[in-house]
């Protein structure tokens, strides 16, 4: 909001004082840094970035030239997660982890770098005498010749140096270990890599052999105890059997075997008796026709007699037809048939008698076996309780014997494993002397130095910008002064670098547009007695840009047919005898028409600073400033004041108080924000606020 005019003497006060002009409220601005602003920051501080890149690159080149060359060699070992199984019960069981053995191989990375493996490699290559690794210089060798050397310390130093030059890595998704050794000599690097690979395999073989030997010793130590336990259990069984008169045969009690056999015999006898009884009963039921039994049917004698009977019956039938019943042959045949049938009857009776005899014999045998069975059952009941305890002792004996047999077999297996190499790793690629050095990679270092320098330089540039921010954009300037930016003029350097006609047209267009925005934003009464005025101010370092903007505004207004008075508060400053100017008018010593003049070939009237020797009062200066603008209203349409650096010149205060517009000028990506803030604060101290700003985009 516009600040009211300072108080002036009542007797010299103007007849009418209009209200301060109203301005359009500026749009809210963002204080963030845009991408284009970053580009301008880096472009303006390019010398810092380039110097950082050059310095870092030079240091890198010096390092690359002074650093001794290093060579790297790689030996590869493949590790099978499934161990070589020599025996069924191996000390090192072959089990594959759920991740396919990756964890097992990862653990072997640490094993390959362990002290045991590295000390084996050091001893195999006599590395303690290598000056590159033992840390022994010329002075150390001379001192060692006179005072002796400590081999323990040398070994420790060699181990530490080798560990720094060693890298063991596992390739992605494979079970291969890469043993990489770096040394100043290519042959030394390859020899060390191969020695470490062989030492790793030897260490694995020794570890497995030691594990098998330890297991064998532990098991052998338990064999004697297990043998004694077997003897004790066997003695307990035999003692118990002797005490209870228990005779064993084929692992079982003799009484139990006899009872089993007798039971089998009794069962067979009972079956035989039942069969014979059924046969006798059948024969008895047949009565007069015993020949219908199955025994008669199966008897070969009966069968032969039946065949003869059938033959005689046929003959008698034939004789009856041919000879008659009284023929001698007929009578003889009938007599033979009668005798044959008697033989059949006697044979059938003999079968019945034999069956009954067999039945009685089988029944007697059954009763005898039943008597023996009853006797053995009585004896068996006496030994049942003793058998329970005997079986328990026998089970203990069997268990102890089984454990002893397992221990004995395991001891023999583990004893054999100590002499068998079951290592599951092998060298698939021996290290070869490197043909090219691995360090320092000059190209890579220079490439990294350049990009690292760029990154460091950019970071330093951004830090420097953060510590001392400059005007980066119109939005930032608008946010800082809380007033709109009316335009951005291209710098003079851009005008010379391009086509001058196009650049001049653009500059005039920007100035004309700024004047249009000022005219549109200002509400002045039609009868306002003061001429419209614009005061241009800037920090001290932007003097040239401020003068150019003020002149550009004046020329743009003059080119559009407006009469312009240009007041340069710095013209004639420092001269011994300057021409009368605005300070003389503000003291009331001269009128405006007496001191203003037109520039040669221009329609813009000029008014310089004047003589600053005499001191004038502030209230009087405000009155005469008001009167000067009222007089200028008759001859001019616009007054443009180059107010200089307001923070360094308080004589401009009356002009600041009376000006309609106060524009601040700053250079994009060059004017420090602290200078903008100081100028804005100076305007505030003088009772006003900036109403706008003009920016100059000077080339970086």
Could you walk me through the main structural features you see in this protein, from its secondary elements to its overall organization?
The chain has 700 residues and is α/β, with parallel strands linked by helices. Helices cover 59% and strands 10% of the residues. It contains 22 helices and 14 strands. The chain has helices spanning 35-44, 46-66, 102-112, 115-125, 131-134, 138-147, 151-165, 186-243, 254-286, 294-298, 300-322, 328-417, 442-467, 474-481, 492-497, 500-521, 543-559, 582-586, 592-595, 618-635, 653-658, 673-685; strands at residues 71-79, 166-170, 176-183, 248-249, 252-253, 425-429, 485-490, 533-537, 564-568, 597-598, 604-607, 638-644, 661-667, 692-697. The strands form 3 sheets. Strands 7-14-13-8-12-9-11-10 form an 8-stranded mixed beta sheet, with helices on both faces. The protein has a 4-stranded antiparallel beta sheet with strand order 2-3-1-6. A hairpin with a 5-residue loop joins strand 10 and strand 11 (604-607). The two termini are 36 Å apart.
Write a concise synopsis of the structure shown.
The chain has helices at 35-44, 46-66, 102-112, 115-125, 131-134, 138-147, 151-165, 186-243, 254-286, 294-298, 300-322, 328-417, 442-467, 474-481, 492-497, 500-521, 543-559, 582-586, 592-595, 618-635, 653-658, 673-685; strands at 71-79, 166-170, 176-183, 248-249, 252-253, 425-429, 485-490, 533-537, 564-568, 597-598, 604-607, 638-644, 661-667, 692-697.
């Amino acid at each position: 909001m516009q600040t009211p005019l300072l108080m002036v003497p009542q007797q010299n006060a103007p007849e009418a004082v209009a209200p301060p002009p109203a301005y359009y409220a500026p749009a809210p601005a963002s204080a963030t840094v845009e991408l284009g602003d970053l580009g301008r920051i880096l472009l303006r501080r390019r010398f810092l970035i380039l110097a950082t890149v050059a310095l870092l690159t030079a240091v890198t080149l010096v390092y690359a030239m002074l650093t001794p060359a290093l060579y790297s060699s790689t030996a590869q070992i493949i590790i099978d997660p499934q161990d070589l199984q020599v025996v069924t019960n191996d000390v090192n069981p072959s089990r594959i982890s759920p991740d396919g053995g990756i964890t097992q191989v990862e653990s072997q990375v640490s094993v390959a770098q362990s002290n045991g493996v590295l000390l084996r490699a050091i001893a195999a290559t006599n590395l303690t005498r290598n000056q590159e690794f033992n840390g022994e210089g010329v002075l150390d060798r001379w001192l060692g010749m006179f005072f002796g050397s400590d081999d323990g310390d040398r070994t420790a130093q060699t181990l530490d140096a080798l560990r720094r030059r060693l890298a063991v890595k596992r390739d992605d998704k494979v079970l291969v270990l890469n043993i990489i050794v770096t040394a100043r000599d290519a042959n030394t690097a390859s020899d060390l890599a191969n020695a470490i690979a062989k030492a790793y395999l030897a260490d694995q073989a020794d570890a497995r052999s030691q594990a098998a030997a330890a297991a064998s010793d532990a098991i052998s130590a338990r064999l004697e105890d297990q043998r004694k336990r077997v003897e004790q259990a066997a003695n307990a069984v035999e003692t118990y059997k002797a005490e209870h008169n228990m005779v064993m045969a084929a692992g079982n009690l003799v009484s139990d075997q006899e009872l089993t056999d007798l039971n089998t015999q009794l069962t067979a006898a009972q079956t035989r008796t039942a069969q014979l009884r059924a046969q006798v009963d059948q024969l008895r039921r047949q009565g007069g026709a015993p020949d219908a039994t199955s025994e008669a049917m199966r008897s070969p004698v009966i069968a032969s007699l039946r065949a003869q009977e059938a033959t005689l019956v046929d003959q008698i039938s034939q004789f009856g037809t041919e000879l008659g019943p009284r023929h001698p042959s007929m009578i003889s045949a009938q007599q033979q048939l009668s005798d044959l049938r008697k033989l059949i009857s006697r044979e059938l009776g003999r079968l019945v008698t034999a069956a009954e005899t067999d039945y009685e014999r089988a029944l007697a045998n059954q009763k005898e076996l039943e008597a023996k069975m009853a006797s053995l059952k009585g004896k068996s009941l006496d030994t049942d309780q003793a058998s329970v305890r005997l079986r328990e002792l026998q089970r203990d004996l069997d268990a102890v014997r089984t454990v002893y047999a397992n221990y004995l077999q395991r001891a023999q297996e583990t004893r054999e494993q100590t002499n068998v190499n079951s290592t599951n790793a092998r060298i698939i690629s021996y290290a070869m002397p490197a043909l090219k050095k691995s360090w320092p990679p000059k190209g890579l270092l220079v490439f990294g130095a350049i990009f690292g320098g760029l990154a460091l330089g950019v970071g330093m540039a951004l830090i420097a910008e953060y510590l001392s921010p400059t005007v980066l954009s119109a939005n930032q300037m608008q946010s800082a002064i809380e007033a709109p930016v009316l335009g951005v003029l291209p710098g003079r350097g851009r005008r010379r670098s391009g086509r001058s006609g196009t650049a001049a047209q653009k500059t005039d267009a920007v100035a004309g547009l700024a004047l249009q925005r000022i005219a549109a934003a200002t509400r002045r009464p039609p009868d306002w007695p003061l001429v419209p005025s614009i005061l241009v101010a800037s920090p001290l370092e932007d003097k040239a840009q401020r003068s150019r903007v003020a002149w550009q505004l004046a020329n743009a207004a003059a080119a559009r047919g407006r009469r312009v008075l240009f007041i340069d508060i710095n013209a004639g400053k420092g001269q011994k005898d300057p021409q009368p100017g605005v300070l003389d008018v503000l003291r009331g010593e001269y009128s405006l028409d007496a001191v203003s003049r037109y520039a040669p070939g221009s329609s813009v009237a000029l008014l310089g600073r004047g003589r600053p020797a005499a001191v004038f009062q502030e209230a009087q200066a405000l009155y005469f400033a008001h009167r000067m603008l009222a007089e200028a209203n008759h001859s001019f349409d616009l007054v443009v004041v180059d107010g200089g650096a307001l923070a360094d010149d308080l004589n401009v205060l009356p002009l600041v108080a009376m000006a309609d517009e106060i524009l601040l000028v700053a250079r994009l990506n060059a004017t420090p924000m602290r200078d903008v803030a100081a100028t804005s604060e100076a305007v505030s101290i003088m009772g006003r606020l900036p109403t706008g700003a003009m920016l100059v985009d000077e080339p970086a």
